[in-house]
Structures are given as C-alpha cells and as structure tokens.
Design a protein that fits this description.
The chain is an alpha/beta fold and 607 residues long. It has three domains: 183 residues, P-loop containing nucleotide triphosphate hydrolases (Rossmann fold, 3-Layer(aba) Sandwich); 69 residues, no CATH class; 246 residues, Rossmann fold. It is 33% helix and 26% strand.
Length: 607
C-alpha cells in the first residue's frame, strides 16, 4: 500500500496519557503515546491483552467512562483539531461521520432488536440527513458493497440471523456509511475463521483504497500486522516499546518483547514430515528461546480405541406457527465416523457452522444424536442409564471456548474446581482442598489463588483453571472446543504446551476442535476436516498439511496468514462465500404422520 508521506496526518497523537482510578489512586493505562496516521495509511498497534491498545482507541473516540477514567495529558489532533478539547456534543457529530470504529465482537455491538436496515440507516439519517426511504436504499448499497450475498433479502433480517463473518461485514458497512476519514479497527478478526479473516482483511484494504482512509488497526496477532500494516507500534503495559515500518519491525525487531510476539505466531510447515505433536518454542523476556522437553508422543496404532464413533448424526428441528410444527431441520452432524486411541490427539477443523462443536457435545451426550453410536472404553453410551451415563462422564470432560462464561462469577476458583469432586462423591471437603491445590500447581498457578474469583484472572489464567477443573475427574478423554481461539498468541502457545505436557504425563486423549490450522498442526496426531456436518478428509497430520486432497482443506490452508510482510500476498479476489446453510425444509405426510426432510437427501423420521 503506497502512502504520500508529504501529506499532513489525519491523526496526530502527542504524548497521550490515559489513567483509570484504581483504589482511590489514578493508574496509567497508556503512557506518553505518540503516533501519526496519514491518508490511505494503515498503522497497527500491537500487543497482548492489557497493553493499552483498546484504551488508546477509546481515548481517540472519547468513549472512556465518564467517571473512573481520564485523559491526564497529551493531544489528539484530528485534521489539526484537538479532540481532547471538544465537548460531548461536538464529539457526537464527529463519531461515525469523520471517525468510525469497528469493534471486536459484532454481536454485542449490534442491537439485537433492530434489523440491519434500521441500524445502517440510523447514522445516515443522523449525520447525512437522509429520509427513511433514501437511508434504506443507501443501506442496501452498503451491504452490496461489503459483498453480503442476497443483500436485498438480508437487509431486513436481525443480527442473530447472520454468521460471525457476515455480522462483521455489517459492522464495516455501518462504519463506512458516512465515508469517514479515519477508521479504527479494534481486533476485528480475532475470533473469526481463517477464511473469513482473510476476506475481512482484504475487504478493509480495498475499501480503504476507495475512500482514501487512514486506518488504525488494533491487534495482538503479528500475522495480521504483516498482512495489512504499513507501520507498526508495539505496546506493553501501557508503554510504547518500539515503532517503525512493518518491514523493519519484522526484519530487525529491536525489543525482546517484539521478537517474542513475532516468534509466538504459529507457522504452517514448521513441523516437517513428523506426525507427532511438537510444543511451541518459548522466548523469555531476555529473548532466550527454549523448547519444553516432553515425552515421545508416539501413539500405539494397535491399541484399542478409547473412543469409537460410528455414523453419528445429530439434527435439530425448527418449529414455527401457532401449533409449533416442524418447519425445517438443521442437519448439524451427518454420518460422522472416527476412532481415537489412548494418548492421541485428533483435531476436528472447519469453519463456523460446519458441525464441529455439535459433534463434541454429542460425543458427551450433551446433545442427543438421532442416529449412530458413540462407544467410550467399550461402553455404548446409548445403552447406559442416566446414572450410568453420569458415572461414565467422569471419564470424559470438556474444555469450552470461553473460560469466563464457563466459570460461575460468584464462585471462587477453588470451589469451582472442587465442585465435581464433591458432587460425584470422589472426595470430602478436606481431601478436595488438597486435590485442588495440586491441580492448580499442575496447571502453573499458585494454590494461593484458590480463594480468588474468575474476574480477577486473565484469559489465559482462566483457561488454566478450566483445564484444572476438567482434570479433577481424572478423565481419559478431553474434548477441547476452541479452547485457545480467543487468546493472545503467546498465551495460546503456553496453553497448547500445557495440554501437550498433561497428555504426555497422564496419557490423555484429546478431540481438539479448532479453526486455527497453524495451532492444529502443532498439537495433533491426526486431522479430520468437517464441511456441512460431514468429515470430508481425515488422515495423519503430515498428510493433511503436506498433501491436502479435498478442495475445502486446500481453501482452509491457503487462507492462513504468514508473519512476514515481505511475502505479503498479491491482492486476492474477494469471495463472499459462506458454508451453505445446513437447514433443510421438511414436508409433512398426513397419512403417516411423519416429516420428510427435503434436500439433497430424503430421510423419513417418525414424529
């Protein structure tokens, strides 16, 4: 991306210091930050959670809490005018019209009670004075511009009817509605699939060229920085550690922390022909690299499978109307079969909506299958009574994607880990405390934190707590559902290494559900690729990554970003393709009182 360095900056931040009130004292979250952004230039602010990136963006937008936060000093010059001196009324006129922001989580940023047309039309009416009809027409043009298929039909749908990638496109359309001079993108692709991430990044770059916008891109992913940024600014704990052109930052990082961020980005092809998992190298603050020394990791191919899945099928009825009759059916999982051996990791990969999480939940019978069987340690789960199934679940545990949502905010972490032990009668209160202390130590936390609550921990620490809780039951099978997808790259490497260490020591088997292909390459023995509820390709890790056969597998691998700006790919042809809907219509047959699924297959199910 070419920029005219002679232009006056659209944004010029000088010695910004933002503080929060903590315990009666003002504590800095951003310390003396300075940066400039010119037209058609992308500047990335990069760092881990808590580094001050998002606080910088909120300071620019003047969206800090009215009480408990303040801009202590510095200037934020936008087109030469200091935003810190603007009234709230003046800032309201600037937000959306001249400076727009894309937030990290589109579902919480969009109003669930308003249609897309209403939400896109609102800034057009407020800032551009359009009538309702004109705003609706312009909203349709914006949806088409961000390449949402069937835009005229989807214009009047609600946010929950869109996928994550499509919701992010709606957020981009809303941000661009008034043709702003500056776009702030705060982690806009963190939790998205690799293919959707590639589409969103390419879309932002193309729209930037069309509108000649300056872009402030906030991220913790150096792979994203390498793909989109002209210049980068590295932050840690509120301090700016390093700043320079993207090429220089990657080629000659001056600060050890910058080197550690670059080093932590998983890279495809780093495993060679090995089919054994390999821990991530870890770089300390002094820049010294170490690789954890784990056991061999070889799986006995002749060992009896701990898990056998045969023709597993899970569907969900969609009901509507006054009588709540079945109107459609979601074909979430279709004829899935695989084995998992002791000490083995099978990665289940694919985009959102392909059926990965439903497969994991069905294996534990948290969802009931309509067909097929699941056999764990020789026991067919469908044959077990509720009491027997409850006992068998002690041998099977799940680690969920969002550790904060998985923990009771009113319960101390010690009580959360001890709860399954007490519920299943595996330990009394005194013994459970001893076990909890051992588990916290095992996952790299101090036993002293047992009395603290979930909100007092970072995301990576909360995930360690969830792992400790899963280990409390001494399982042999763990289903890890997107357990590292939303974590910073360095924390992600730590959690993956912890899981590999526990597998080597305890002989655990993992079903590792993920859309992050680079992490999957590190942790898995075998890989299964899912598309529309079906496994389209399965095999050893080296075969899937080294010689993918299915076009969908090839698409997933080609979308992975490289943490090297010198290999920044040529402008790609944008595709707005999503995974086709797994919903099938149904016909009701009155004579038999049965519903028949209408679609590529015709399956008759008793009602």
């Amino acid at each position: 991306m070419m920029t005219d360095q002679s232009q006056n900056p659209v944004l010029d931040i000088r010695n910004l210091r933002t503080e929060f009130r903590v315990g009666g004292a003002w504590t800095p979250a951003v310390k003396d930050l300075s940066l400039k952004i010119r037209r058609n230039e992308t500047v990335a602010v990069v760092g881990e959670s808590g580094s001050g990136k998002s606080v910088t963006a909120l300071s620019i937008m003047r969206l800090l809490p009215a009480y408990g936060a303040r801009i202590a000093k510095g200037q934020i010059l936008f087109d030469g005018e200091d935003l810190t001196q603007k009234t709230e009324r003046q800032m309201a006129a600037i937000r959306g019209e001249q400076i727009a922001m894309i937030f990290q989580e589109p579902m919480t940023s969009l109003n669930p009670t308003m249609t897309v047309a209403q939400q896109l039309g609102e800034p057009l009416r407020i800032h551009r004075g359009m009538s309702q009809a004109d705003a609706t027409r312009e909203a349709l043009a914006l949806l088409e511009r961000v390449r949402i298929p069937a835009a005229a039909r989807r214009l009047h749908e609600f946010p929950h009817q869109f996928s994550g990638g499509m919701r992010q496109r709606v957020m981009i359309a809303m941000a661009l509605a008034c043709k702003p001079k500056l776009l702030i993108a705060d982690e806009p692709t963190t939790a998205l699939d690799v293919t959707v991430q590639a589409q969103i990044l390419e879309l932002i770059k193309e729209l930037q060229d069309e509108e000649n916008m300056g872009v402030l891109f906030i991220t913790h992913d150096m792979g994203v920085v390498a793909d989109v940024a002209d210049r980068a600014l590295v932050m840690r704990r509120g301090d700016v550690l390093e700043e320079g052109s993207c090429i220089d930052i990657f080629a000659r990082p001056a600060h050890p922390y910058t080197r550690s961020l670059i080093h932590a980005v998983p890279q495809l092809g780093s495993m060679g022909a090995s089919d054994k998992p390999m821990p991530f190298p870890v770089m300390d603050e002094a820049g010294q690299e170490t690789t954890p020394d784990l056991a061999d990791g070889t799986v006995d191919p002749g060992a009896a499978p701990i898990l056998q899945v045969r023709n597993l099928t899970t569907r969900f009825d969609i009901r509507g109307g006054i009588l709540r009759r079945v109107r459609g059916r979601v074909h979430a999982v279709e004829n899935v079969s695989f084995d998992l051996r002791p000490g083995e990791t099978l990665a289940l990969v694919g985009e959102s909506g392909c059926g990965k999480s439903t497969t994991g939940r069905t294996l534990l019978h948290l969802e009931k299958p309509v067909a097929g069987e699941v056999v764990v340690e020789g026991k067919r789960l469908s044959d077990l009574s509720e009491a027997e199934l409850r006992k068998q679940r002690c041998r099977m545990q799940m680690i969920f994607q969002d550790p904060f949502a998985s923990l009771d905010p009113r319960q101390s972490v010690g009580d959360a880990i001890a709860e399954p032990l007490l519920v299943h009668g595996l330990a009394n209160a005194g013994k459970s405390r001893e076990i909890v202390d051992g588990l916290l130590t095992r996952v790299g936390l101090s036993p002293a934190v047992r009395e603290r609550f979930p909100h007092e921990f970072s995301g990576g620490q909360r995930q360690r707590i969830c792992i400790a809780r899963a280990l409390a039951m001494r399982p042999k099978l763990i289903v890890a559902d997107e357990s590292v997808s939303a974590l910073d790259v360095s924390v992600k490497a730590q959690i993956v290494n912890l899981m590999l260490e526990l597998q080597a020591d305890l002989g655990l088997s993992y079903l590792f559900i993920s859309h992050d292909m680079a992490v999957v390459e590190r942790i898995s023995h075998r890989v299964a690729v899912m598309y529309l509820g079906e496994i389209v390709e399965i095999g050893p890790r080296s075969a899937i990554f080294g010689n993918p056969q299915h076009p969908y597998t090839q698409k997933l691998l080609s979308a992975v970003l490289l943490p090297d700006p010198s290999q920044r790919r040529q402008r790609r042809k944008l595709s707005s393709d999503e995974i086709p809907s797994p919903v099938r219509a149904v016909d009701f047959i009155p004579a038999t009182r049965r519903f028949r699924t209408v679609g590529p297959e015709h399956i008759v199910m008793q009602v």
